[in-house]
Each structure stands twice: as C-alpha cells, then as structure tokens.
Amino acid sequence: NAGVTQTPKFRILKIGQSMTLQCTQDMNHNYMYWYRQDPGMGLKLIYYSVGAGITDKGEVPNGYNVSRSTTEDFPLRLELAAPSQTSVYFCASSYLQGVGSYEQYFGPGTRLTVT
Amino acid sequence: GQNIDQPTEMTATEGAIVQINCTYQTSGFNGLFWYQQHAGEAPTFLSYNVLDGLEEKGRFSSFLSRSKGYSYLLLKELQMKDSASYLCAVSDRTDSWGKFQFGAGTQVVVTP
C-alpha cells in the first residue's frame, strides 16, 4: 500500500512554461485535495474533488486546473507559470462516509520553483 | 469561511509539557484536526475532535470547546523529535463537507 504518491519531487520552471503535477492514491479514497504551502505558512487549498468527475475550487485556484477521471488520480495543471507559484505542493486524500474521523493522508510534496 | 489563529512559535525543554492553542470562527463547525509537520516533510494526522472534551492518544491530547471556538493540543514528556510545526485545521459543513481550512501552524522548538 503506497498511500499517496506525487511526482515529480522537485521541478524548476521558467516563467510562462506549463507542467502537470501528478498525484495517485491507492486507498480507494473518494476525496482528494491539492494544497500549496509557502515558507512559514499553513496550507492553502487550491482545488479538491469529492469523487471521479467532480472537482471544485478552493481558496487559491487561479492559475491552476485539475481533472479527476479516475478515483486514483488527481493531476494538477499549471498553465503559464509565474514566480508567485513558487511553492511546495501537497496532494492529499481522505475517505468520507457518514460520521467519524476523516483525516487526510498527504503525499510527500512537490517543490516547485518558477524563475 | 473560517479564521484560524494559533501562536507562531513555542519553545520548551525536553521532558516538559507544551500546550498549543487554536481559536477559530466558523458558521457550521464540523470537526477540528491537528497535524504534525516536520521540516521538509508532509503533514501527518495527530488527532480529531468533533465533540467537546479531551481526546487522549499517548503523549498527545487534544481538547475542544465548540461554544468558545477553541481547541488545544497538549504535548507531554516532550522529546527532541517533537520539534515540528503543528497545524490546526477546521471543517465547516456550510462550506463543503470534507473541505478544511488550515491555520498557519505553530513551530515547537524542543531544547535539551
């Protein structure tokens, strides 16, 4: 059971380039999330998904796009990268059904620098 | 939405106790989580509170008062490995089930 995996671990982009951050989970979780974390700050929600085919915006969606064609995969697309998108990106998943704890499991993160 | 406040940094000695407070404002409280994050690593789940009271898990305990919009995480018998950032996260059912807002985190420094 690998949990939540993310690729790549590190990436340097030039301004205006595009890339896709990959995220896969093997826990059959229905919810998946993308966060960014700037130095010394908490996590800001970019997009989330409640199941295959359903996505919604979080607090900071501008400049990003997502899709959820399968339960397992939730890629994050950056179009026209800007220096303000330099951050650490975390993917997470959780399983929600009725009441009870629904903690999130996080991937190891992708460290992105845009120069 | 929610406002979540927690102290920026706390320092304590190995073997001591530290209490990290978290205050929040939310229109439809649906649960509060604590996560631990070591430098350069991903957050990992510590505790969950949805009803008032204390939840104990070994050296870590978490308390919730919904009427006061207040929680704390208590770390006992501090060890050097407890040096990390501790994130408070709140779920609001009026926003979206399963969606969270995180505080900025409290950096705990454990000294010998």
Q: Helicity range of the residues of chain B?
A: under 10%
**What portion of the residues of chain B fall into strands of 2 or more residues?**
over 45%
User: How many distinct beta strands of chain B?
Assistant: 11
Question: Sheet with the most strands of chain B?
Answer: 6 strands, mixed
- Low-pLDDT runs of 5+ residues of chain A are none
Mean pLDDT of chain B: 92
Structural class of chain A: mainly beta
Q: Tell me the greatest interface.
A: A-B, 26 and 22 residues
**Classification by helices and strands of chain B:** mainly beta
Straight-line distance between termini of chain B: 40 Å
Overall outline of chain A: globular
**Termini Cα gap of chain A:** 36 Å
The secondary-structure element order of chain B is EEEEEEEEEEE
Description:
The complex is a heterodimer of chains A (115) and B (112). Chain A has 115 residues and is mainly β. Helices cover 0% and strands 49% of the residues of chain A. Chain A is built from no helices and 11 strands. In chain A, strands 2, 4, 5, 6, 9, 10 and 11 form a 7-stranded mixed sheet that branches. A 4-stranded antiparallel sheet of chain A has the order 1-3-8-7, with no helix packed on it. Chain A starts with a strand and ends with a strand. The mean pLDDT of chain A is 93. With 112 residues, chain B is mostly beta strands. Chain B is 0% helix and 59% strand. Chain B has no helices and 11 strands. In chain B, the strands form 2 sheets. In chain B, strands 2, 4, 5, 9, 10 and 11 form a 6-stranded mixed sheet that branches. Chain B is globular. The model of chain B has no long low-confidence stretch (mean pLDDT 92). Chains A and B meet through strand 5 and strand 10 of A and strand 5 and strand 10 of B.
